[in-house]
Amino acid sequence: MKKIFNKVVLVLAIGTFFTGCEENAIPELTTPVSQDGAKAKFFFHSDAAPAANFFFGNEKVTAAGSTTAGDEQALAYKAVYPSNAYASVPAGNVTISARDLSGAEIVSTQETLTAGENYSIYLVGAADDFEIVVMEDNLPPDDEVKMYWRFVHTMANVPFTVDAYAVKAAVPVTDNAPAQPAQVIPLAMDVDFGEGGEYVELEPGSYTFKIFNSTEDYDPLTSTPFILHSVNVGTLGRSYTTQIRGTYSEPLGSGKIDFWRDR
Question: Listing from the earlier edge strand, what are the strands of the sheet with 162-168?
Answer without folding.
Answer: 183-191, 162-168, 205-213, 227-233
